[in-house]
Amino acid sequence: MKNKIYIIALLLISCLISSCESDDEDKSDFQNSVLALSDFKQSTNNSYKYIVTGASWIGIAWETTIIIVDGKATERHFKYTITQGFGNNIPQGELEWIEKGSEIGSHTNGEPALTLDEIYKKAEQEWLIKRDNVKIHFETKNNGLISICGYEADDCQDDCFVGVNIKSIESLQ
Fold first, then answer.
1. What is the mean pLDDT of residues 36-62?
2. pTM
3. Which residues are within 8 A (CB) of 21 and not within 5 positions of it... i.e. 6 or more apart?
4. Signal peptide position in this chain (predicted)?
5. Gyration radius from the chain CA atoms
6. What is the mean pLDDT of the chain?
7. Could you read off the pLDDT of 8-17 as tens digits, one per residue?
8. Which end is more exposed in the chain, N or C (fewer Cβ atoms within 10 Å of the end residue's Cβ)?
9. Helix or strand or coil: residue 136?
């Protein structure tokens, strides 16, 4: 009987240790990405563009391109890339549009025109917070910069991801 208790105790302790190691690894990955962001901003004079993608189970997909010049959003371009889930009643002006300057934010669809600094802040303060019953996603496939960051509820079936999916990040120089 004592052996069983010791085995159970050892299993619980090993689970706790591996859980902590995973959390530490995630934090380390994020911190490494923050360093990559600092280097990227310096090498690009904080002028770049990035493309955020999204999709829904109903058969639509979209992308939003954000252009940042000297650390400020100057342009936001939105377009649906797959429209099978729509009927034929969508006006062309809603399928694709460009906002510049003071127009930025005038459309409701599309990703907000955030800088990468603002995305990293949301990642740290909102998307990467440890919660019960959610799976956290964090990847850095854009040369060490965020490519996927967010979470989804374990029991959710459709369109549950909260966060960002960045397809590409490029210098404007």
1. 96
2. 0.83
3. none
4. 1-22
5. 20
6. 87
7. 443 434 443 4
8. N
9. strand
Strand order of the β-sheet with 96-100 is 96-100, 72-83, 60-69, 48-56, 162-171, 148-153, 134-139
Asked if residues 30 and 139 have their Cβ atoms less than 8 Å apart, the reply is: no
Q: Which two tokens stand for residue 105?
A: 């934010």
pLDDT confidence bin for 134, thresholds 50/70/90: very high
- Kindly list the distances between the CA atom of residue 8 and the CA atoms of 34, 109, 123, in Å, as whole numbers in the listed order: 39, 51, 36
Q: DSSP for 45-96?
A: TT-EEEEEEEEETTTEEEEEEEEEETTEEEEEEEEEEEETTS-S---HHHHE
Helices (H) and strands (E) in the chain, counts: 3, 7
Name the nearest CA neighbour of 97 among 119, 79, 84. 79
Integer Cα distance of 146 and 57 in angstroms:
24
- Residue position matching structure tokens 């549009």: 97
